[in-house]
Amino acid sequence: MSALLTTSAYLLRSVAVGERDLILTLLTESRGKISAIARGGQASKRRFAGALEPLQRIELELTHAERDIATLNAARIERPYPALSLRLERLDVAGRALRWARHVLPPRVPEPELWASLERLLRDLENAEDDGSAELFVFGLELLEIVGVAMTFDKCGVCGRPRPEGRSAHVDVARGGIVCTSCGGARRTLDAETLDALVHVTRGPALGVGLELIEAALSVHTSYEEGGTAR
Ligand SMILES: [Zn+2]
């Protein structure tokens, strides 16, 4: 009899296998990103009681958690986020955050900082007054830092020399954000206004540029493809 593991989790992806089962990708609090099989998960709505949906915190009982694919014995909803579904943009933002996490996290490495970061994002999104771009941008920067490829807009990502406020700079997502001319610069330049807005997470069009840079950084450093193999 394999030991039973109980942990909180978010569903990152669910893929049907055969006629009955589901293979789940989960972000768990205690084991990081794992895969698990939910036997009978396609048919048995009652067994997992609506828990196998994204964008809610669930509590899982797993066996064989040490294997490549654990077995899901039970799941229940632990913390729904009903306010998220009131606005499509927030659902989209939360979905993007989970997709980034799925692509960038290595399997079976507990990530307590990322877990805290994701929970903060979902709580903040519930209360956000706009589409939540600022919250998603902050989460994206935290995610890049946690996986060891931090991106900054107030100092050179290579040598650390500060960028004076009010100055434009070269930007290279593969080398940590802005890159000063002594470090070789980069082909792309961002104006001072945009860079200052990114440093201060000022709501407005600059955040669209910021989100694009985060997705570019994710795709350079991981298998993430924007708009790719979704969900
Ligand atoms: Zn430099």
Order of helices and strands: EEEHEEHHHEEEHH
> Which class of secondary structure composition applies to the elements?
alpha+beta
**If you compute it from the alpha carbons, what radius of gyration comes out, rounded to the nearest whole angstrom?**
20 Å
**How many strands, which pairing sense, and closed or not: the largest β-sheet?**
5 strands, mixed, barrel
Biggest sheet, strands in spatial order?
A: 1-2-3-5-4
Helix content: 25-40%
What's the number of helices? 6
Instruction: Look up the CATH topology of the largest domain.
Output: de novo design (two linked rop proteins)
Dominant shape: elongated
Question: How would you state the average pLDDT, rounded?
Answer: 91
Number of individual domains = 2
Bound molecules: zinc ion
Distance between the termini: 34 Å
- What CATH architecture of the largest domain would you give? Up-down Bundle
List the helices and strands and how they pair.
Blueprint: E1 5-17, E2 21-28, E3 32-38, H1 45-48, E4 56-63, E5 69-80, H2 88-104, H3 112-127, H4 133-146, E6 169-172, E7 177-179, E8 188-190, H5 192-199, H6 206-221
Parallel strand pairs: 3-5
Antiparallel strand pairs: 1-2, 1-4, 2-3, 4-5, 6-7, 6-8
Helix pairs in contact: 2-3, 2-4, 3-4, 4-6, 5-6
The chain binds zinc ion (ZN).
Zinc ion binds at residues 156, 158-159, 161, 180, 182-183.
